[in-house]
Amino acid sequence: MKKIILLQVVLCMLALGASAQKGQLRRPPLSFPDVMGYKVLKGDFHLHTLHSDGSVKPLTRAEEAYAEDMNCFAISDHFISRWHLAVLNDPAYDFNKGYKEAKSSAEMLGLTILQSAEVSRDDPFGHYCTIGIKDANAFRPFVSRDEDWHGEKGLMEIMELAYKQGAFIQWNHPGDKMFAPAQAMIDKKILGGIEVANGETYYPEAFQWCLDNNLSIMANTDAHETMAQKRDADGSKVMTLVLAKEQSESAILEALKARRTIALWNNTLIGREEHLKPLVMASLSSLVRVAKNGKMFCEITNIAGVPFYFEVTSPAQEISLDGSVFNIRAYETTGMSATTKGKSAPKSIKLKVKNAWIAPGKCLEVEIPIKAYGAENLGKDEAENAKKLQKAVN
Known about the structure:
By secondary structure, the chain is of the alpha/beta class. It contains 9 helices and 21 strands.
């Protein structure tokens, strides 16, 4: 008995040591400011575990989401695939295993986990995540042990049942051609969103389909192996930014269904202008100093966890720029010098954000207001406020 107790103590100490080591490996926070009265939550809604064709445990997915500074995630194991054919007619097999095994760990780490299943069929029928379902076992009657994943049979019945369960249905890795089942789901208004980015791949056609059909713009890793193996060389992440009222399952599902999403892929933000513009503007602050000789120096600060790449588009007729292209790294301040052509500085600078896309091939444009600190035409109160702000920045 003493040996058993001693072994339990040793195992517990080893587990605590492993947890402490994992905590030290947590990556730097990835922050975004609140916008439009919503929190910007970071989610990955397409993840696999060893309960389908993944190589990691559900618990590992929760730990990885914490390490990657995510807020929410979904276990989306395949519902019907070669891994499940052997157990499909076993009434005791639980297709909700992955979600159940990850739930307590996710909640302990402050994460919101959504239940999901990926319903897979060979192209041209497609793969779909049923995010926010209540019970994947309810799909069982629509497939049989004798059927594999090559046909469309049962697909629409499962999608309609998932929709009735309150799920947000997402079309995964769509390619460049609209599939008939996906179009049928759009027509029935049960398809909620499409992955415009899946892992390393971006789908411009899918981005346009989202805009044309009022669908949520999604980006997920589709990780089967460890998350570390899915990172690019520069460490950039793939995720969906969700503009939600709060961090809860109901609020996240509400935001997904209301199309308040932005895809983050390869350090690029992909979304609708109505969401992207407030996020970019809330991430930036500017301070422009103008000397009496017309020399200008513009500081722009980025408080977001992603870099921004700019091209100045105007006012070329009012100022002479020393450089029209510049970048701001995450959480940093950069400067740009210029010379005014007139007696006073322009009221604003217009910028094209090269890594914020509001349509395929179209970048977001923003306008940064200019406060001419140091110029003679500043009022007394404004000049005093400028001095205080400049002192705070310095």
